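Q: Structure tokens for this one, please.
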Amino acid sequence: MIMKNPAIEIKKWLVSQLQAYSYIDVYDAMVPDDADGEYIVITARTASPIDNKTGYSHEVSANIDIVTKGNGFGFKRAEQIAELVMGGINSDTIVTLPAGWDCKNVVMASINNLEDLDPFGNTFRVIIRYTFVITQTI
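A: Here is the predicted structure, written as tokens:
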């Protein structure tokens, strides 16, 4: 068996889930200059091997960066989107990956709020870090 990158499969799954639960654009690391005022960016994906005698297992983490831009609403809208995301991706979520992959658990590792206040447009962000244990089965 040749070891594959588990972060690629979890990214594909995250994109589909985030689009289904948040109803806003989802980007992989890079956001176009003409992006709307609300979007999600998947960043900081890491995969660390876990000792497993029967296959390749990894603890895979990813940041879900919820970004809202504009004046007059503060964190309210970013936190509303974050609640939609957390309602759809949590410890009860069954992660369905392609054949050859198995996900045993989902953990919301942390939540951070960040703001960038400037006279040209305020930016409010909620960053949710998720951790998954993924095993390559073939």
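A few notes: The chain has a mean pLDDT of 89. The longest strand covers residues 101-116.
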